[in-house]
Q: What sequence folds into this?
């Protein structure tokens, strides 16, 4: 089935806005391949939501699909409304780490807590890319950015672990160099009953690489390869040795009742009791 796949089938004829070497392009390709391998010949069963930022340009207006660009950090509330009105559709949120885990963090936590049946793909370039490279909640410790010229002094947020604690059904982190695993995680997310979260750690040569001291995108890719380790390997290591590592793998894969089910069940119950009166 994979032989005939071409990303062009799923994209409008509009030039993508990303810099050369940007991981957003890799994420597009793996996401569309995942959809294709699940039998989606087009994106008519999808709605895409995104906020503001480079990664927020992934779906809209490029995918041949219905999509909505919201304000910065507010893509999950829009997705919530769409999913409740159209539970038959795959509602997918794309966003950067600033959009999803910075300004939009509370929405992410509550969507996971509710086990809202949407898919959130967070493209983690470890910086605020579109605004020129400010420190983000995901920037690795001691990394130089425009707002931390002497290196970041904050611990980065481990977003997959956070959504697991909040109640997500599925959570995974891969990098764009783990192509096959990332695509498989996206397929799992798309078939998960409940809240599914996929983090794709992604190179941003322009805003992250230059400030953090990387010569070019090849050097960022080398760094991703050298610093990624599996959850199983990480379990055997001390916390202080993991500070600058990228722990990849599936953080959770479990089933429980979803927000949409709970809402519709409550509506039915209310209608039944109203009829009795
Ligand atoms: C309410 C609001 N605050 C701040 C901004 C400015 N702003 C635009 S994009 C962005 C962050 C982008 O970073 P991220 O979400 O990680 O996406 P990236 O560009 O790195 O893909 C910020 C702070 C805004 N547009 N709206
Ligand atoms: S600034 Fe970074 S994230 Fe934005 S398009 Fe360029 S490489 Fe990609």
A:
């Amino acid at each position: 089935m994979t032989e005939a796949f071409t990303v062009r089938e799923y994209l409008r004829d509009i030039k993508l806005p990303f810099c050369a070497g940007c991981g957003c392009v890799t994420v597009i390709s793996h996401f569309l391949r995942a959809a294709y391998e699940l039998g989606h010949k087009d994106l008519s069963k999808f709605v895409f939501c995104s906020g503001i930022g480079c990664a927020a340009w992934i779906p809209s207006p490029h995918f041949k699909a219905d999509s909505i660009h919201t304000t910065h950090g507010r893509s999950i509330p829009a997705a919530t409304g769409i999913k409740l009105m159209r539970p038959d559709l795959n509602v997918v949120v794309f966003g950067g780490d600033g959009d999803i885990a910075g300004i939009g963090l509370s929405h992410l936590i509550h969507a996971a807590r509710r086990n809202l049946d949407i898919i959130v793909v967070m493209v983690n370039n470890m910086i605020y890319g579109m605004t020129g490279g400010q420190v983000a909640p995901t920037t690795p410790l001691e990394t130089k950015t425009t707002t931390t010229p002497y290196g970041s002094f904050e611990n980065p947020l481990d977003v997959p672990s956070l959504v697991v604690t909040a109640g997500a059904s599925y959570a995974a982190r891969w990098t764009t160099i783990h192509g096959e695993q990332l695509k498989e995680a996206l397929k799992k997310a798309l078939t998960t009953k409940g809240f599914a979260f996929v983090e794709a750690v992604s190179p941003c040569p322009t805003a992250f690489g230059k400030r953090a001291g990387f010569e070019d995108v090849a050097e960022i890719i080398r760094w991703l390869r050298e610093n990624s380790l599996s959850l199983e390997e990480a379990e055997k290591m001390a916390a202080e040795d993991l500070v600058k590592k990228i722990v990849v793998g599936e953080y959770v894969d479990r089933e429980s009742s979803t927000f949409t089910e709970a809402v519709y069940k409550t509506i039915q119950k209310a209608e039944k009791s109203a009829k009795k009166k």
Q: What stands out?
A: The chain is about 40% helix and 15% strand. The first strand starts at residue 46 and ends at 50. The pocket of iron/sulfur cluster (ligand 2) is lined by residues 18-19, 22, 24, 54, 125, 129-130, 204-207 (CB under 6 Å).
